[in-house]
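Schema walk-through. Below, the input block comes first and the output block second. Nothing else is stored per chain. Lengths vary across the set, and this one has 741 residues.
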Amino acid sequence: MAKLSKNKREFKTDKTVKFLIAFITVILITAMFPKYETIETDYMVGMVWSKEDLIAPFSFPVYKSESVYKKEVDEAGSKVYPVFDVNSRKQGSTNWLDSFNTEYSKLIKAVEYDADFQKERSLPEEKRTTSEQSLNKLKSDLDFTLTEAEWSSLTGNLNNSAAIDAFKKKIILSLNQVGDQKIIDLPKSGIKAGRIAFVKNKIEENIDINSVRDINEVENILKNDFNGFYKNPELSSVSFKLARLYIYPDLIYNEAETQKILNSVTDAVPKTFGLVRENERIVSKHEPINEATKLKLESYKKIRNEQMGSRDFYLQQLGRFMFVSLMIFLLGIFLFKMRSGIFEDNMKLILISTIILLQCVFSYLSLQLQINYPIEYIIFVPVAAMLLTIIFDSRVAVYAIIIICLLVSAVRGGDYDILIPNFCASVLVVYSVRDIKNRSQIFISMIYILLGYFAAIIAIGLERYDDFNTVKSQLIGAGLNAILSPILAYGLLIFYEKVFRVATDLVFLELSDFNNPLLRDLSSKAPGTFHHSIIMGNLSEQAAKEIGANHLLARVGCYYHDIGKIVNPDYFVENQMESNKHEELNPSLSAKMIIAHVKNGIKLAEKNRLPREIINFIPMHHGTNLVSYFYEKARTDEGEIDTTHEYIYRYPGPKPQTKETGIVMLADAVEAATRSIDDPTPAKLETQISEIIRARFLDGELDECDLTLKDLINIKQSFLKTIVGIHHHRIKYPENADDED
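--- output ---
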């Protein structure tokens, strides 16, 4: 376990890991760049060309827009007649009629046999079984199947030769009627050309679509005909099943030939409509970009990218890699110089990397989704701003947002038009969550996001004189961003808190709730310690505010700094009601019992998954101080003890590493010492506070935190102000004051 803990600490600070985090981040972002990118990508219709005149270095054709070309291809394709082949199976009426007569004869034979079988039901079982097998054989020889109700209807209605002949003639008559027009095997609803083509005697002919019928149309005609002729639905159904066998298409669709003709026609549609010659001006400086100019720019970009060789491609990739590396390097320099605590912790660097990568993924996806909508305004950059502000601070957030906005725009192929709106919305949202007090406050940020986007979009739209509909669609996209960003930030914040074990001010606020199980246990089992922690919290919070430290962290750290006393509360003087248990122990054992509350506290904190920032207060608020009372008692009772055994009476440390833990160390000593002063006048309190701070400073307990001498002076003044407020003199009322009415 110790080895595992050591490995975790090494991972968090390893410089090689820092390099790998940066390298992997750069590689992944570089891979998201579009296949080609040129400096001419930042243009829109209505925008004024702000660069120098663009002169064509070579001749190139001007390509039509995708929508125009597709429309022309569709129009050309709609004029192609579907090609059909003449069905060789349907040569004349005799072929199908002979086949029909044969099938009909088998049907009538089965019907007659069925009628005889019904009369033989009184015969012996053995003979009846044989007859039933013969009947089933006759039925199975048919090319269609009938239900029992249909067989029963045939047996009852076709009981004489006249009925049999009439039934046959009706089916033949109906088949002849639908055969008066050619039948095709392709639904007419799918034929847009209005005519069809077929080859007859090696000569291509085409006919109007209304002069033919498709299979579905013929079937509907037959069903309606039989349903109208027969009152018996079973007879109508049998007629249709039998007739359906002889509906042959006259013309069979030839998909391969049709597609061949379609391809030749659509391939003949030109993709270009003009030519830009070498040294011709494509666009002039300060010239508004119209649709024709935009097509020239896109065509120039397309041709130039197609002419890129492998050498050019690798040079372009190198340029992208260098650009992304520069952005990540600048962010790293900022963290190294201004936020060393973040830079030293690799887990925090990974967290920042995932936020940056998430934004680049949104940017990448916005290019992949082919939607006729300004989807770039649904890249949730404000989400990154909220997360970075809540998890770290506003300065980190603003600096990182500048880098993220540049990277997001670069991943979109140099679309820097989106940079300003994203930056404005993100900076405003930083101020909305900088002093966040509860999670629901995240949703107030949507107002700031909306204001940032709307102000930037309208300003840019007016400056460029953009079309109203263009600005309107951008505003709608920004509004959707404003609604979804707080929801996404809310969920991601919980994810980062759980996965990366980051302690935000929101987590500290939740831990300050006295209904927390640990604090409830502390208040019930060690009420004196709980009260001491509350007073310490007030002292530390005010002092932290004075020197610009995290006052919330200092207060919550006080609440949990002594939770280890829950295990053996009676061994601590503030919880003792009557006898002192240390009177029965020798000084060294008493010291061990006192010091043990640090170890017990850490175990309880880890069991309850408290953040590391809170756990640090448990050992650091004592540092490596002596348990002076029992140390002096040992020296008095046992004579001068060996200084080599002094470690028995010292806390294991470490010393305070942050301003907040340093403040709590001083507050712990000040609260305990000033509580025992008789007649606590301001002068006495000031002397006591000064002496405690001086002693801790001289003992070197504050050497490893960032507290300066100026900070210590401000802390002393803050402590004094708060302690005087606690110990102020009260007015003495007369003893019989309660009796007065």
